[in-house]
Structure formats: structure tokens, C-alpha cells
Amino acid sequence: MRPTATPPAIDPAPGWSQSLANGAPGITLLHIERTRASTGDQTTVRRWVTAMTRNPITAHPQVSGLFRGAPAVAFALHTADDAAYTHALMALDQHITTLIQHRLQQAHQRIDDGRLPVSREFDLISGLTGLGAYLLHRHNGGDLLRDVLNYLIRLTKPLKFGDETVPGWWCRHGPNSRPSPHWPDGHGNLGMAHGIAGPLALLSVAMRRGITVTGHAESIRQICAFLDHCCRHSRFGTWWPGVISFTEWRLRTVRQPGPQRPSWCYGTPGLVRAQQLAGIALADTHRQHLAEHALSCCVTDEHHLSQLRDSSLCHGWAGLVHATWRVAADARDTDSGKILAEHHRHLLTRMHHHSNRHGLPPGNGLLEGTAGPKLAQITADSRLPPRWDACLLLNG
Questions:
Q1: Is 381 within a domain?
Q2: Does the model's pTM come out above 0.70?
């Protein structure tokens, strides 16, 4: 059973009410933005908040992250900017603080032991990058956010792996988050959702806002240097693989023959935005220019665009549309900025054409459902600075 336009009497699946990705928190964000754009109302927002908080909210350290449990619910409540939720947010923050402190303790112990991480330790969806994004969204600073940033600094330090040295965020499992005979030596994940682009974006947004810790700029440069190593230039423009194997890292090569689909989660849009934010944070105009040029090539190349198969926010048209809007708004390169601004509307049209021809994504959720395309459209139409996309680390 899929969520309907109004909250059902019984949640259709365990945990549905607490999922920012495909449940009530993400759908609440849609109705918050509709209210801000004067196309919705607070009554609908509060009905979805009721659905979101109907059942006990989990803050279990093995389950909760930005997209699940207490942080997901609190993210949506804070975005609503409604005094009615003040006490609920204060209560949730106590549990989220305990959760983050526990996760940080585990992560530092793992680093002390010289072990490689799993992606859910640090990534945006489940890990400490996502929890840091929540703290930045909710408090815009604070000691706990700095603790998360300090952890990310440690994450960028290299670790020994057999006779080789690998980046400290090299994952010991395959891209599906499980051990795999196809990935016996783990993998390096570059993406925004589960890879190093997420920490890069968080570090860069924090620095842009004047929130820094020791080693901050150097860590940003280290991540950018890794992305430079993986960067490829071809007739399709500039692009990066989503993941690389240990053999590729050891031989300093990339076997992927061409760019993957231009998605927020793993593709050029998310990687470009993270590097644009890094360029802005470091006042590195050259890096910012290269990032903006890479996305301008992407949005004008049919090989890139033809790989999109749905209109979702995570890996479809909506993610490309909204990332393009964000990159264009911050563009320093006049030519690339103009191309991106002009093609943003064209991409919106392509998104609608795809939806009309193939249907909207199933479900009402944020990442893979209808809420994502609708939010991308509202942002394009309203011209209001969006608050909802802080969970994607596309905001600045």
C-alpha cells in the first residue's frame, strides 16, 4: 500500500512514518514548501506531522540517521518554522545529541584501531555527514557540529590497507553495503548520498558559513585532490565515476568507459555541487569554474541526459533540475552560469515530458516518489530560497 494524498489511518509499512526518503517527513517538506509558496496550508502540514509522529520515534544508533528516525522527524519539524513544535524539537534534540555522541565514539574508536569504515558510518543518508547536516540546518553551528567536523577531518587521513595506503573513507564492503566477491578489497565511493562528496559538501557549507575547525581547509583540498585523480575528460565532457575498485585506486586508473546517469546521488550534478561549494569555501575560483563548466557540459549533452529513466529526486530528472538551479544561482563563471540558467527551464520541460510519457515515480516520497519532482518545480516557480534541500547538501 502506498501513501495517499492524506495520511492513512494506519502506517502502510513499519518505519514508514519516520523515513525522510519515502515517508511522512519527506512529504511534510513538500507541504511546508507549498505553504511558503502560498499554494498550500498549515492544516495539511499539521496532518502530515501527525502521521509523522503517530508512533514512537526511534533514536537507536544502529537505525537512526538523517533519513530515518528522530533526525528525519526533527529535520521536517525544524523546516516548518512553527512555534508549535518547539517543545517536540527540544525533546528530539536530546535524543539526537546522545545518538551523535555514540556514533562519534564508535567512529573514533574504529579509526584508533586502524580499521576501514562502512559507508553508513560517515555517509549522508545514514551516517555522521547526514547528522552533521541536521545540526547545521537546526543550529547553524555549535560544539556538537564541530565534533562532527573534527571527525570528518580524521576521516580524510589515509589508512594502511595491506601494503597500500588508501583514503580513510575507503569502504571495506561493496557498493551495496555488503561484502561481495566482486569487491574483495572494498571500494571508494565518490557519490553525494553514500560517498565522499557528502562530507565534502558539509565541510564546504560549514566553512562558507564561518564554522571551521583545525585542518578544515586541508581536508577539503585532500578530498578535491582525490576527485581530481578520478576525474575524466572525454567527448561527453568532464565526469567522475560513482565508485572505484581497489585495483583502480592502486593502478591510478578508471575503467568506467563514460559518464553514468546525471543523478544527485552518484552522478555529475551532486559531485559538481560539492566541488562548487568547495571552490566557494576556499575562494578557489579555478575549481569553481571547472565544476560549473562540467555541469554545463552535462546539461547540454544528450548522452548524459538519455540515461535518466525516471523523474525522481534521487537518481532522476528532479535531482538534475534542482542541482542545476543551485549551481546556476552560485555560478561565478559567466558563460557556464548563463548556460545553466537557460537550460534549467529546458530540463524542467524534459522532466514533465518524461512524467507525462512514462508516469510519475511510484509513491509520494521525497527521494524516489512524487514529492521530489514537485519540490523541484515549486522551487523553480516560487524563487524563494529553499530550506528543504539542506537534507541533500545542495544548499549553500
A1: yes
A2: yes
